[in-house]
Each structure stands twice: as structure tokens, then as C-alpha cells.
Design goal:
The protein has helices at about 75-85, 125-135, 150-160, 165-170, 200-210, 235-245, 275-290, 290-305, 340-355, 385-390, and strands at about 15, 25-30, 45-50, 70, 75, 90, 135-140, 180-185, 225, 255-260, 310-320, 360-365, 375, 380-385, 400, 405, 410-415, 415-420, 420-425, 435-440, 445-455, 460-465, 485-490, 495-500, 505-510. By secondary structure, it is an alpha/beta fold. A hairpin with a 2-residue loop joins β4 and β5 (about 75). α6 (about 235-245) packs parallel to α8, α7 runs parallel beside α9 and α9 (about 340-355) runs parallel beside α10 (about 385-390). The radius of gyration is 22 Å and the shape is globular. The structure holds alpha-L-arabinofuranose (AHR). Alpha-L-arabinofuranose (AHR) binds near residues 96, 189, 316, 365 and 370.
Length: about 500
Amino acid sequence: MRLLTSAAAIAAAVILPVAAHAADAPVQVALDASKPGVVIDRHVFGQFAEHLGSGIYGGIWVGKDSTIPNTRGIRNDVVGALKALKVPNVRWPGGCFADQYNWRRGIGPERKPAIGEPNTFGTDEFMDFAQQIGTEAYISVNLGSSTAQEASEWLEYMTSSTDSALGAERAKNGHPEPYKVAVLGLGNESWDCGGAMSADFYVNEMKRFSHFVHSYNPAQPMKRVAVGPSGPDPIYTEAVMKAWKGRSWAWDIEGLSLHSYSTGGWPPHMSDTGFDEKDYAVLLKDSLGMDDTLKTQSAIMDKYDPEKKVALVVDEWGAWLVPASGSNSGGAVQQNSQRDAVLAALNFNIFARHADRVRMANIAQMVNVLQAMILTDKDRMLLTPTYHVFHMYVPFQDATFVPLTFDAGAYTTDGVTLPRVDAIAARDKAGKVWIAVTNIDPKSPATFSVSLAGVKATKASGQTLSAPKVNSINTFDAPNTVAPRALSAKVAGGKLTVTVAPASVTVLGLE
Ligand code: AHR
């Protein structure tokens, strides 16, 4: 992972100011693959799996004795679907849950349940899940209600050899080889559910945890992520980064967390399926605010860290809507529509434009919670529109950003104005250039005319995701209402021309 690297200057896409734009005028895009930018770290396509609602129990874990096909208690259908996403990392066990988690209750043959938490899915099960889907572990330790000693012992259990008592206990529990913990979260939302700490108080706690909670495998150091801001709030960013500038041999961090949800106003009040065009526009406009949030936070970080050594880690993002009707309101279950697919693509594009500072992100959440990839109901599973966007964007993992210029135009409904379209491009490690175009306008198709420099191509092919309506969803009875379909486009005279559906996401590779 490139969390530690200092990034070269970003070659950002230039999106010209929003201007009045005839809805059917082709969008003129200029792509210059001879001027590459920075690498889009694959870790920005990370996920978050918290012990919340049925995110774990039912969604990932069904237990070894379940009639639902499983491998050591972990659902085979969910694992199969997630493998296709090449998920780079999964943040676990929370969220707010992490700051009340007692790892000891979740290991060994005798699990010790808490109220509402059976602890049958614990450290060994999570690491098994991570290995089954082929991802890296991002472990959030309990800084809010526990001690550095307890967190350090958890790391000893996970990462030490069997020469230590806790490494030996892990071996007794079936795993002699130490696990790899790639990323360590030093608390969660310490300004709120993680202890309601002032920023200065948190900084002192975080320094102790950074020092004492370490990997016991010198060959596998971890990236440490400190709690950072909520949205554009500067207070934690200032305090943590100022402290970081004065760091010593005894403590360090490689990442600063940012949580920023798309809600259209707090608390969440927008419906997952029962929304009109205005609500569509309001939520997406709010989501596009991620760009300003990243600019604000990056500017503060630049003051203390101009070399961009500390990554901004957007480890909770996505749409947070009113719980689906009929669901347990505490479970944060929401359906997932074509609107969410567009929202996901817009956020990926923003992260790509900030790739020099944003080197990791985790959508909230993976299964059955908030903007999920997958919904399950007993033995049934469906892939959401957001899943499909993650799948379509796989070629962008570790690809090198290619600058584009275009006039995004404007789409206005009921007094809400946002860009009509968006686009990014990148060159993958094999040299292939990919372009992703999003048509935000839910009423009109968009034609893109892309002039290609620095790349030779005769055609482009890939997939497009559109839907009958912006609030179209997949259900257990109709799981393929929103599904990608193959699309190819001609390249003639050095220009790629493609027309895409209203409210759609398209990813094409140049050939
Ligand atoms: O993702 C749901 C919750 O949102 C997380 O537990 C918490 O960190 C955030 O407030």
C-alpha cells in the first residue's frame, strides 16, 4: 500500500465552471495519456464491515451448522461476489462498535456473548473471511473504552509468533501462522461515539496508542490511521496534524481518517426508494460536496505535511438514508438504487482527483448496512447497483491518473443545479487506458466526444450501468433490474464517441 509514499504533484482533471449547456450538445473531452498523474491507490476501493444490524451476522457469518452454503461459517455466495471486486482492504469491527469491543470475548472455543453480540464472529473468523475474499485487514482498536495494554495484547494475539503466550493461544485456536494486520485504526469518531473527546485529549491518547500498540512482526509494519474530522470540520485535523509535525521516534501515523456521508442534511431523512427528481439532485449535490471537503482538509494537512506523507483516509463514506420500510431502524438497512450507483461513481472520481492525498477509503458498508454492495435475506443474496459500480471500476485500482479537460455543463431541476456529467481516465499497469463517464442528468442521454492524445486506439469496450428509473432497485425477486451491460464504441480520427443513458455510469477500455 502507498500510504507512506509522498506523492508527486497531482495532474488533476480540469472541470470548467458549470455553465448553461444545451442538454443534447456532445460533451467535448480532451484526454492526454502522455501526461500521467499520480497512481489511484487501489485502497480507495476499500470496504467497511461493522457489527451493526445484519452486516456481519446473516450477511457474512451464518455459522458452520447453517443450511446456507458456507465455508467455516462464512457465506459462500457473499465471498464469491466480493472476490470479484478485488476488495483491497476491509475495516473491522467498527465504527462505533469498535470502541466498545472486547476482542477476548470473541476468540477460542468458549465465546462470551454481550447483549446483542454473540461474539461467534471474532478475530479468527474475520481473518478467515479476509483470506477467503483475498483482502487486507484494517483493524480498528478500542481507544474509547479500553486500554492501550488490551489493544497491544490483541495485536500480540494477531501478529506474534508462537513464542509469545498470545501467539501460542492463536495457534491453539487453529492458526499457528501470524496474521497480517495491514492497517491499524487508532479509535473511531473520538469526537463523538468514540468517547466525546476534545481534540487535544484525543491527541494525547492517540500518541500512547501509536507507541504501545504495534505489530509483533517486524517484517510487517502497519499503517496507523488516527481519528480525523467529520466532513469539513477543521478541529481534529488541525490538532492531529500539528501534533504529527512535532512527532518523535516514539510515535507516528501514516493516515488521518475522514468520515463524510451523503445525506442531504443531518439527521438522515431522505428515502432510499421513494424519492423524486429533486431529492435525486439534492443528494447528489450533497455528495459532490466531498470535493470541497477534501480540498479543505488537504489544505490543512498541507500546512503541516507539504510532502503528503500522511494519507487522508476516507474510511466512512456513502449515502446514509432513512432505514428501509419494515426494517429494524437500528440496523441501518437501506435499499440501493441507480441513484446510489451514480453517487458511488462521482465519489470515486473525486477520490481519483485527490489521489495524491486520498490514498485509502472505505464505503459504509459492505453487506446489509447503509450503502451496501450486497443485501441478503436468509439464503438469498442480491448485488446492488453500488456493487456493480465497484466492479466496473476495478481497472482503476492502482492505475495512473490521466488528465482530462471538459465542460461539465449544468443540470438543473427545481432550483437545484449540479454538473450534467463527470469523467475520469487512467492507465492501468498493463498500459491500457480506461475512461469512466457518468451522466448525472436523469432525463437526457449524453454524448461524449473524447479526443485522444498519447494513446492509439481503434475502439473502446466495457460496460454501462443504467436503469429504467433513478429509483430502480434490485430485489430478491427481481435481482437484475439494475445490471451492467456490455457497450462498445468506435474510435475514428483520434476521437472516441459514445452516447450513454440518463443517470448512468459507463467504463470503457481503449483498444
Ligand atoms: O457506519 C455507521 C456508523 O457511522 C459508524 O459506526 C460510526 O463510525 C458512524 O457514525
